[in-house]
Design goal:
Blueprint: E1 26-30, E2 33-36, E3 41-44, H1 47-50, H2 59-71, H3 82-94, E4 99-105, H4 108-123, E5 127-131, H5 140-145, H6 149-155, E6 163-166, H7 179-197, E7 202-207, H8 223-234, E8 237-241, E9 265-268, E10 280-285, H9 286-295, H10 307-340, E11 348-354, E12 357-362, H11 383-393, E13 396-397, E14 399-400, E15 406-409, H12 417-435
């Protein structure tokens, strides 16, 4: 039976809204499940927006927030606070390499903008290089960094930031190349872009360690090592966008740690508090932090590093360390096996991911082309959207990728084998229902 919302409109304007789709009203949650106002129970196979990493209803996190409220609810972001400072110390302890200091912000979009500002100030260069088919945020600056044309199209008419784009390490971008050959061709292309932009004008390369909403695609072997070498050779900073891949999503504290490469800056948000309160930030290496302290930083946000959010972050780190990261490592092989079984469907052309972040790509089996390219035909009926709706009707929440020729699955890190099997089974049945 199809689930219908009880009201057709709300005074609240939904983000990423569409006139033909009214989202459900979620009122409760526990573990891997949420409940709507009409009592419908859903498996949250997307962690809402890739962010409720510890699952819903975790009392350790909510209790820490309550305790902070009882001490002091807010301290200016221009001042120090004990909870904020403790979280910065804890983040430095789990961060890769020499990342040692944190500039706190509110959202991932703002963290990426702050990272770019810090990188520009440190290098004296204006440009940042990012990938096509990437997502770095929806504010004016972060939207310009994003490779998704629907996001950039909504923002660029009103001005944007100084960026240049390069191709992602996907076979379709490099004549079907795979593995090390793909890594070499993709990074040779990055070098070509660097040289043609002028290395002296480029401050940084900003990358997601594993594609997030852009398709959960991991890089081919050797890719990040070569990107690191290029940054060293041309004097650029490497920024890892860990807004989605951070805090256990890929089985380590940060996704870049699965690549064995150390970035110069690292942005985070979402999972740092398991989304129990808004918090984000930029981790920077020692010399960059010293530069910021010496020169000062004339930008900030009222709610950057909010003490209640930082309290949630400290508790979330404890929860992750107390079994959740290990749970991802123990179950990632099962999750991969279950997800790859979806390739048996004729309409599925690729299944890819890492840890608890996986994407399923669809195409017409007769032509190999997407059924609809939503970036070219935004008004066309998209069967991939129908798969998402069908999964919701079956009690499982998944999300669309960018572009929506794919779906993304990212359950909370507390998911057990039963939840993983339930979610993939619902997706498989939904594919059958839509494509036959």
């Amino acid at each position: 039976m199809s689930r219908q919302p009880t009201k057709q409109a709300s005074a609240s304007l939904a983000h990423w809204s569409h006139p033909e789709r009214e989202p459900p009203t979620i009122v409760e949650g526990e573990g891997c499940h949420v409940v709507s106002e009409t009592g419908e129970r859903y498996l949250d196979f997307l962690s809402q927006l890739y962010c409720v990493n510890a699952g819903h209803g975790n009392e350790r996190i909510s209790s820490a927030m309550s305790e902070q409220l009882e001490r002091i609810a807010y301290v200016s972001s221009a001042k120090h606070n004990d909870t904020r400072d403790e979280l910065a110390d804890r983040l430095a302890a789990v961060a890769p390499g020499a990342l040692s200091a944190t500039f706190f912000s509110v959202s991932g979009s703002e963290a990426n903008e702050a990272a770019v500002q810090i990188a520009r100030g440190h290098t004296g260069a204006p440009k940042v290089l990012t990938r096509y088919q990437s997502y770095h945020g929806g504010t004016q600056g972060a939207g310009g960094l994003t490779g998704d044309p629907s996001t950039r199209g909504a923002l660029e008419p009103y001005g944007s930031t100084a960026t240049a784009k390069f191709l992602p390490p996907l076979p379709e971008a490099f004549d079907g190349a795979e593995g090390e050959a793909l890594a070499r061709r993709a990074t040779d292309h990055i070098e070509y872009v660097i040289r043609n932009e002028g290395p002296e004008t480029v401050a940084a390369v900003l990358l997601e360690p594993v594609g997030g909403t852009s398709g959960a695609y991991p890089a081919p072997p050797g890719y990040f090592e070569r990107v690191r070498e290029l940054c060293e050779e041309y004097g650029l900073l490497l920024i890892a966008d860990e807004v989605i891949t951070g805090f256990g999503r890929c089985g380590e504290w940060f996704g870049i740690q699965t690549e064995g490469v150390e970035p110069d800056l690292l942005t985070f948000a979402k999972g740092v508090t398991s989304a129990y309160a808004p918090l984000a930030g930029v981790l920077v290496r020692n010399d960059i932090a010293a530069d910021v302290r010496e020169s000062g930083f004339d930008l900030g946000q009222t709610f950057g590093g909010h003490p209640v959010s930082c309290a949630a972050g400290l508790a979330a780190l404890d929860v992750y360390a107390d079994g959740l990261l290990e749970n991802v490592r123990e179950l990632e092989k099962q999750f991969e096996r279950e997800m790859r079984s979806l390739a048996e469907h004729d309409a599925v052309t690729d299944v890819r991911g890492r840890g608890f972040l996986w994407g399923v790509e669809f195409a017409d089996p007769e032509t190999g082309e997407p059924f609809v390219d939503p970036w070219v035909e935004p008004e066309a009926d998209n069967p991939v959207r129908a798969v998402i709706a069908e999964a919701s009707n079956r009690g499982t929440l998944i999300g669309a990728g960018r572009p929506a020729t794919q779906v993304i699955c990212a359950p909370p890190l507390c998911a057990d084998p039963t939840a993983i099997e339930e979610g993939v089974d619902a997706l498989s049945a939904s594919i059958d229902a839509v494509f036959g």
